[in-house]
Specification:
This protein folds into two domains: 12-203, MFS general substrate transporter like domains (Growth Hormone, Chain: A); 218-408, MFS general substrate transporter like domains (Growth Hormone, Chain: A). The protein has 17 helices and no strands. By secondary structure, it is mainly α. It has helices spanning 12-43, 48-51, 59-63, 68-73, 83-100, 109-140, 146-175, 177-197, 211-226, 228-240, 243-258, 263-292, 294-318, 321-349, 356-371, 378-396, 399-408. Helix 5 (83-100) runs antiparallel to helix 6 (109-140).
Length: 427
Amino acid sequence: MARSASPLPVAPWRRLLAVGAEGLASGTPLMVGSKLLQGWLTASGVPLALIGLIPLAELPYTLKLFWAPLLDRWPIPWPDRRRGWILVLQLLLVAVIAAMALLRPGTDPASLTAVGVAALALAICSATQDIVVDAYRTDLLPDAERGPGAAAASLGYRAAMLAVGAGGFLLADRYGWPVAFLAAAALVAAVIPFTLSAPKLRPVAHQVSSLRQAVLGPAREFLRRAGPNRSWMLLLLVLLYRWPDGLLSAMAIPFLKLQGFSEAQIGLVQGGWAIAATMVGTVLGGALFAWLGMNRSLWLFALAGAIGNLSYWALARFGGGFAGLITAVSLENISGGMVGAVFIALLMSLCNPRFSATQYALFSGVYAMSRSLLSAPAGVVAERIGWPGFFLFTAAAAIPGFLLLARLAPWGEAEARGAFDPSRDAT
């Protein structure tokens, strides 16, 4: 795998704190633009058909790959080439979220237009921040800290989900929706001091010097570094490693509902309990990664993910009531947290610091296809073969990933062999 730029001599906990804080800043605007805004629109009597259009404003999260090269080409040099953009975008996010508190949602065209414009502006700023936060984390962390760093970033992200998804609604219930939005803006603002004091990146040699180089260079550099025989296998690994998770996620709620669990039971378990279990799995995954290394973590965590999927097979085959539900959701989300931690570390390892903004966006876009295109037939498969057979299928979907790991990340080696030039630093 590719190595990160040599870090400046700072304590590891400072790097982990920095990426955790930026994870919080990434998760907050996403939750504001989805859960919090949807809640306000529903409470304001906006028709469901119009509320259902809000996800269209989140297209920037899918399309961010197309402007990621601009951030590699034109970095803001202070405080460093990544934190300069992070600082600007966090200031913009604070302003946009605070301005949303001034909205007055209603059914008239003017108010709906204002809501749509605000949601789109929020998504553009948030998606762009994600690009640079991913690049900063990739450039900052040395190889040995990628697992713990991925865990810290995920924990920050999950903390934002809890703070906005739960705390925001509590504030809205007691003090009104504008206060909830102002509190979310304050949460992003609270990260700005961490951004300013975060560890500084070393300069990279051979800075991107043209837009053409920023657009074409990342793919060319990846193909050259990985080689023609391994580049396509690495992309397949990114695409397929979390495919079992995408298949299960697409059908988990319909399955639980058709099993007779109430909305309250599903909400309780899939909400707070699932998030807590994911956080446990994320911490466990980060700790084990530091001990096992990249290759063995990829193998063992994928195996844990398959076992988590099989817990749903057991629930479908044998039942178990609410206790069975708790067990299945716990195993799924603990293993999912472990898989998520090692997967972020994998994506970071594939990037060159010179092009990390664009390359990380590219790899995450490839992964996104496994949750959209490859997981789209999940409902058809479940209807055709039934729930027990479907969950066995989701576990079997891990097999292609294991076959790729056998070639790219042998169990007996600490890092994937031959994927990249091990002598590369930040050039």
